[in-house]
């Protein structure tokens, strides 16, 4: 990656043309994907920092429900932030927005250092600073809205899977590295350590990413997919797959601390995010070959079974079995992430721009799952002393997602894109 990106936007881009892809497109696409992955990886680390930091806040006399709110709030904010982040690359340009969104990550990193590092910080301030970590959740929506344009249709599953996996592994990076950093330098360092890396990633994006003219579009064109029922059906499936991954990954350190306080949560918590992230591109790869709907349906059924195994492990009060059960759960959620996301370019195959916009909106809604799972765990443990109630609710939701996918995409082989309505003029869209 020694060549500096072109300073002006690329005006001709035809990745589905084999000759263009072989001679020029492939090199540019993979270079941009590499930069996108670096930024998204750091964005996920910032987004999920509080999942580790809360384990070190026990001395502040916070309730279990309060601790889970600190973990859940970044997911909620991240979900809403993903909506403007979806359209931002189309308005400002891929490279410009990637650099800007990377630099914004400095805010929650420094905020955590200031708030969590001071023992007298009020709870409402901790909540406010935790909310700023939601900025890290927005980068993924920008990334997928960009990468969709760079790669040919036949490589969409692999490209989106690698893009997402590189970001998702940031969860494991946080849960593996931050406990070591805190033990050596204190809680404040959990935020400070990422600042120089964020600045380097922003510089790399500036030097090596490109703007595509075909990726630019009026905001109205990008948001029109919100009126399509299929966008919201895909969003529900992504709440079940990615939302579960995010929720379980951020909840696991605190859950291990609650269930087995004598165990070192840092030794186990990172495994979930790691295997789930690595499974995601596998899910996309399988979807490329077997079909996104088929793989998605199968993984939701597998997730239901994994929840039952997790409940059995919790009843056995065995740390090893509990961690193993959660790892199984993460494998299934990772496969589901890749498969469900691969359905987007297939369902919106008639317009690449619509697929990019839908990918961002689906990602936004999907992130709500991280908030819902953490708050459900907090309420369940506070009310019953156990997480079983929450887990059985999740299992019912997975069965519902499997049924939805089958009825919508598989029952009558109805996976073909719905007829495209007559496109209104841009001026009409802007006036709505």
TrEMBL record:
It is a multi-pass membrane protein. This is NNP family nitrate/nitrite transporter-like MFS transporter. GO terms for molecular function: nitrate transmembrane transporter activity. GO terms for cellular component: membrane. Keywords: Membrane, Transmembrane, Transmembrane helix. PANTHER family: HIGH-AFFINITY NITRATE TRANSPORTER 2.3. The chain crosses the membrane at residues 33-55, 67-85, 97-117, 123-145, 157-178, 184-208, 232-256, 299-317, 323-344, 356-377, 389-408. InterPro entries: MFS (IPR011701), MFS_trans_sf (IPR036259), NO3_transporter (IPR044772). It is found in: Membrane. It comes from the Bacteria.
């Amino acid at each position: 990656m020694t060549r500096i990106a072109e300073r002006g936007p690329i005006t001709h881009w035809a990745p589905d043309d084999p000759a263009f892809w072989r001679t020029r497109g492939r090199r540019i696409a993979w270079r941009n994907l590499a930069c996108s992955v670096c930024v998204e990886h750091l964005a996920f680390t910032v987004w999920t920092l509080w999942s580790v930091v809360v384990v070190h806040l026990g001395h502040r006399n916070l309730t279990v429900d309060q601790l889970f709110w600190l973990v859940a709030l970044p997911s909620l904010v991240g979900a809403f932030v993903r909506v403007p982040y979806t359209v931002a690359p189309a308005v400002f340009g891929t490279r410009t927005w990637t650099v800007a969104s990377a630099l914004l990550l400095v805010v929650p990193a420094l905020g955590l250092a200031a708030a969590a590092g001071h023992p007298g910080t009020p709870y409402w301030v901790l909540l406010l600073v935790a909310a700023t970590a939601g900025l890290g959740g927005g980068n993924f929506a920008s990334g997928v809205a960009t990468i969709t344009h760079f790669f040919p249709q036949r490589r969409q599953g692999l490209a989106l899977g690698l893009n997402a996996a590189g970001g998702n592994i940031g969860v494991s990076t946080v849960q593996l590295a931050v406990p070591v950093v805190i033990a050596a330098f204190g809680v404040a360092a959990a935020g400070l350590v990422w600042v120089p890396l964020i600045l380097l990633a922003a510089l790399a994006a500036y030097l090596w990413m490109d703007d595509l003219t075909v990726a630019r579009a009026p905001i109205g064109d990008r948001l029109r997919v919100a009126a399509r029922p299929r966008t919201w059906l895909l969003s529900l499936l992504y709440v079940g797959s990615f939302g579960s991954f995010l929720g379980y990954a951020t909840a696991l350190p605190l859950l291990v601390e609650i269930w087995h306080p004598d165990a070192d949560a840092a030794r186990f918590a990172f495994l979930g995010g790691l295997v789930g992230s690595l499974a995601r591109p596998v899910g996309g790869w399988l979807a490329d070959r077997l079909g996104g709907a088929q793989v998605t349906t199968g993984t939701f059924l597998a997730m239901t079974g994994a929840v039952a195994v997790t409940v059995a492990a919790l009843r056995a009060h065995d740390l090893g079995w509990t961690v193993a059960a959660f790892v199984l759960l993460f494998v299934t959620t990772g496969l589901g992430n890749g498969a469900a996301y691969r359905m987007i370019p297939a369902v919106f195959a008639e317009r690449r721009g619509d697929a990019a916009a839908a990918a961002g909106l689906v990602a936004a809604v999907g992130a709500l799952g991280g908030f819902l799972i953490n708050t459900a765990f907090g309420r369940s443990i506070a009310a019953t002393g156990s997480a079983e109630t929450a887990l059985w609710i999740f299992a019912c939701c997975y069965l519902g997602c499997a049924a939805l996918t089958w009825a919508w995409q598989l029952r009558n082989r109805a996976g073909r894109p719905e007829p495209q309505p007559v496109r209104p003029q841009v001026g009409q869209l802007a006036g709505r």
